[in-house]
Amino acid sequence: MSDQHLLEVRDLVVRFRTHDGAVHAVNGVSFDLAAGETLGVAGESGCGKSVTNLAIVGLLPKPAGRVEGGSVKLEGRELTTLKEEELRQVRGSEIAMIFQDPMTSLNPVLRIEEQLIETIQAHREVTKEAARTRAIELLTAVGVANPESRLRSYPHEFSGGMRQRVMIAMALALEPRVLIADEPTTALDVTIQAQVLDLLRRLTEERGTATILVTHDLGVLAGMADRVNVMYAGAVIESGTTDDLFANPRHPYTVGLLRSIPRLDGETGGKLVPIEGRPPDLIDAPVGCSFYARCAWRTDRCATETPALLPIDGGKGPIVTSGPAATHVAACFNPVAPEEVAEGRPLRRSGGATR
Amino acid sequence: MFRAALVDPQIARASRGLWGDAARRLRRNRPALVGLFCIVLFALAAILAPVISPFDPYAMNGSSLDAPSLTHLFGTDLLGRDIFSRVLYGAQISLFVGVGAVVLALVIGGVLGAIAGGFGGRIDGVIMRATDVFLSIPSILLAIGIVTALGRGMVQLMFAIAVSYAPTFARLLRGSLLALREADYVVAARTIGASRMRILVRHMLPNALTPLIVQATLVLATAIIDIAGLGFLGLGPADPRTPEWGTMLVDARRFMQTAPHIVVFIGGAIVISAIGFNLLGDGLRESLDPKLKR
Ligand SMILES: Nc1ncnc2c1ncn2[C@@H]1O[C@H](COP(=O)(O)OP(=O)(O)O)[C@@H](O)[C@H]1O
Ligand code: SF4
Ligand SMILES: [Mg+2]
Prior knowledge:
The complex is a heterodimer. By secondary structure, chain A is an alpha/beta fold. Chain A has twelve helices and twelve strands. Chain A has two domains: 7-94 and 180-341, P-loop containing nucleotide triphosphate hydrolases (Rossmann fold, 3-Layer(aba) Sandwich); 110-175, no CATH class. Chain A has an eight-stranded mixed sheet with strand order 6-7-8-3-9-10-12-11, sandwiched between helices. In chain A, strands 2-1-4-5 form a four-stranded antiparallel sheet, with helices on one face. In chain A, a hairpin with a 2-residue loop joins strand 1 and strand 2 (21-33). In chain A, helix 3 (112-123) crosses helix 4 (128-141), helix 3 (112-123) packs parallel to helix 6 (160-172) and helix 4 (128-141) crosses helix 6 (160-172). The longest helix of chain A has 18 residues, at 190-207. By secondary structure, chain B is an all-alpha fold. Chain B has a single domain, classed as Orthogonal Bundle (MetI-like fold). Helix content of chain B is 73%, strand content 0%. Chain B is built from eleven helices and no strands. Chain B has helices spanning 2-6, 17-27, 30-52, 83-119, 121-135, 139-150, 154-181, 184-191, 196-232, 245-253, 260-288. The radius of gyration of chain B is 24 Å and the shape is elongated. Chain B starts with a helix and ends in a 6-residue tail after the last helix. The chains are: A alpha/beta, B mainly alpha. Chain A binds chain B through residues 57, 59, 61, 84, 88-93, 96-97, 99, 101, 104-110, 118-119, 122-123, 143-146, 149-150, 152-154, 156-159, 162, 167, 170-171, 173-174, 195, 198-199, and chain B through 2-3, 5-10, 12-13, 15, 17-18, 182-185, 187-196, 198, 202-203, 206-207, 290, 293. Bound molecules: adenosine-5'-diphosphate, iron/sulfur cluster and magnesium ion.
């Protein structure tokens, strides 16, 4: 295994300066992404998924949002210290992004043609004709019927699903190494969601594009992701291969998330259990475990000490951070025992499962 | 199996484009059509004045203060000049000065607003404080000051009105641009690596233009009234014989008792043109807003 990943994020810290104080949006996020891999990111709304992604491509809303620590390396090249002009070259051609709302991600006054051609010409020295040919290819690839005539359309003449296909076409126009899809289907109907996700998977597989797929829907990740990071209050609190994570969740929050979604095999008898309480206010600097207030497994130690992200088996051997043999890690002093997962509560007097 | 699902389920609605849609919506808006009618009347009067005027607006063509008749549709003024012809030529002056002033105001305000909203930071602060100063002075007062300082004349009039409205346009454009900075498609354009200038010119300005166009038609209405107002205050064109509506109104005022029709015709011309631009402006606002679909 090579010791350099396609994308390496280390101890990323992002704060927003607001009138109420600093918002601790991202508090030391680390992860790796190997070429061709699909990394799922799950977590409730507001846990810092989007902010992490915006920080990676240097698009935090200025001047409030700032990277206050850590590093982001693309093929060994540090991105957080790049100048705006250098970063602009990276965006689109090396890292592309798709957003949640296809209704508003396309410019309403420009034809699809102009937007696609602009994307291609922003990075490639090609003639308008060549760019147009490429645009037709791309629309065909994402399943838009009659691409030649559809190029002349304005965004409002497309349905939501079609617009997201166009966004995917734009994102993949320059064959980026990394694609960040931030809740790409959240705004779409369920049936359209499945089609768009299927398309996304097929195209990224064909092109070997490494993907970060953000969603609050764990069900989507089960079918799409090779690995999953579960985020809570601006930190990754559990990470592992999708199989490991779904079969053997160890963090109380992950267990809660899994119990709050419908399962395809209907094992829990269709009963959905939402997680009680709300995520902590990120204005306050985190003390102790951020999940403390909502956790049924908590012990006194959790209130004062912050658990580190450690291998769930106690840590024999090196930690693998990417690929199918990635180490399953969780940030919890009292990980959930397998027999407790189905119950969703501790089967012990207080905390106490040993690592 | 998936192929079928991939085909767009909607048969595409024929592409009329953004302006086509707007025109269609405008046609269904009755007040806007009335406004458009008034403006067409006004514009035709202005453009065709040399053709349709029965008399030379500067020459004596009848006896003093004639009542309306078939020869003199609107009657004559103190010097026996045909008021109908003078009103037509007055439309020409209002249109010329008004449009000139609004275009100038759009250029000055547009450039300042684009710089402020597009680049932000210190330059934004400086420009906005400057517009604050100008906006704190009532526009007619500012115009009076400028005409007084520069002397009377059509160009000075145009410039005075332009300066008094430029800050409004600057603020408006800056505000739209600021709001658009966070628009998803602007962020999306940044994620594909579009340059700052390109984003400003291609993505932000065209979308910020709608409120500006609406405001421009509304300002044209007030500009026409301002021109008349300045003329009324004796700050109109340098030559007192010029058939400028405000100037004519001052003269006519003296004969309100004996020949009230003069005031009515001149005032009516001012009202019709101002109302026309107001109604059309409101209609444009509604029809150009993509959020108010159908
Ligand atoms: N522009 C901003 N100003 C202040 N706080 C922000 C801003 N954008 C995001 N945040 C805060 O950062 C945290 C993470 O947000 P985000 O990454 O968007 O969550 P999500 O996981 O739903 O994508 C939230 O608590 C949010 O309030
Ligand atoms: S048991 Fe403690 S460390 Fe683990 S999630 Fe609960 S509060 Fe946090
Ligand atoms: Mg988000």
